[in-house]
Design goal:
Elements lengths: L32 H5 L4 H8 L11 H82 L12
Length: 154
């Protein structure tokens, strides 16, 4: 026969297992309010909404690769622009230096040309005087008096 035993009574003779108590008094076994309020990760949100779980990272692998390539291109472009600016500055300095040298050279050539033109003018003046004397000699000694030019020019 089966005895009716109340539910709160023991039916076995096994000793009771001791349950260890927490080290800190007042610690609750249930999650605290701060844990309940914390934001859900995208994995948990996806699971609750029925959508596929997303990664906890803000960017996936493809996005990270794209960002890395874009950052590399930006750095490369900045390096090329800075190298171009440096080259332009150097080239500008060289051009300005060449212009100064050319002006100096042209100024020297002008001075030489003026000097040579002055000497040439002086020689032309001397030649003109000689030709005038030769003409005078020819007219006075070699041309008969009837064919002689009138000194007044008429």
């Amino acid at each position: 026969m089966v005895e009716d035993v109340p539910m709160h009574e023991r039916t076995t003779d096994a000793p009771e297992a001791a349950v260890p108590l927490p080290d800190q008094p007042g610690r609750s076994y249930t999650p605290g309010e701060s844990e309940q309020v914390r934001a859900m990760t995208s994995v948990e949100a996806g699971r609750l909404t029925g959508r596929p779980a997303a990664s906890r990272e803000p960017f996936g692998r493809a996005e990270r690769v794209q960002l890395t390539v874009l950052a590399g291109m930006f750095v490369l472009m900045a390096a090329v622009l800075s190298a171009g600016a440096i080259a332009f500055t150097n080239l500008s300095g060289q051009i300005l230096g060449l212009r100064a040298e050319m002006r100096e050279e042209i100024g020297g050539l002008r001075a030489e040309m003026r000097e040579e033109i002055g000497e040439l003018s002086e020689r032309m003046g001397q030649l003109s005087e000689r030709m005038t004397r030769v003409e005078t000699l020819i007219e006075t000694h070699l041309v008969p008096a009837s064919n002689a030019r009138d000194p007044a020019g008429s």
